[in-house]
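Hey team,

Filing this mostly as a record. A colleague (T.K.) asked me to run one chain through the structure pipeline before their review meeting, and I want the input and output archived in the tracker in case anyone asks later how it was produced. No errors, nothing strange. Just documentation.

Input sequence:
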Amino acid sequence: MFNRIRLAAIAALTAFTLLGSSVATAQPVINRVVKTGKLRVGMSSNQPPLNVKSKSGQMIGLEVDLAKGLAYALGLEVEFVQKPFGQLLPALKKGQVDMVVSGVDITAERTRDFLFVGPYLLSGKSLVTTSKALAGAETVDDINQPDVTFVTLKNSTSAAFVKKNVPKAKLVGVDTYEQAVAKVIDGSASAMIADLPACILAILRNPDAGLITLEEPLSVEPMGIAVSAKDPRFYNLIDNYIDAIEATGILSALRAKWFEDDSWLDELP
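Output structure:
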């Protein structure tokens, strides 16, 4: 598949080479990747099937394949910088990574500080719970109750969703989905609110815990690659690349690999 990705990115690779011969101080990301030959990609490493560390310690997932393909097509070495989700965008702002590819929803608030390539995936907010009453909710009004405690990733759009749409409920923030699901299972949280893929995975990984989810998500949200707003040329390069692989069907193949084929579950720790 990576060979097909490389062919799909010939135009983007050519543009990258041309940019590399005429970089200026106004393009800090282009300058750095050309000089080092390395693409630093921020990921949480705990958001399967998007990105996760396998039993063998290797990074796997749809976003991992996407980042590897991007780096390969541009003749760069990929370096995965693993941080808790809430620290990823601050790391991008500080220049510690060149991009964040970690289930980041594109929001108006985030576009004030970052540029987003994509979306490469459409998701939405859902919940995982052991409560049939909560799982039967059809609107946010049905779950906006003071006796309900929701757990989300810290500094995530899920946390913002709870604060905005279910203000009567209690909110607890954690660093990983594993911690969130554990709270639901042990009863210290009523439900985890997260993007739909994380909710589905929680149920698959805990078949005997009595976990259930909504029939339809509470919202629809696009996921994109976050890059620095200080380097529009780098944004244009990555944007052209994503357009190319979408047009050739490679991105659709990655979605099928990670969302329709569950054989990768055996690789999880």
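Quick notes for T.K.: The chain has eleven helices and 13 strands. Confidence is low (pLDDT under 50) at residues 19-24.
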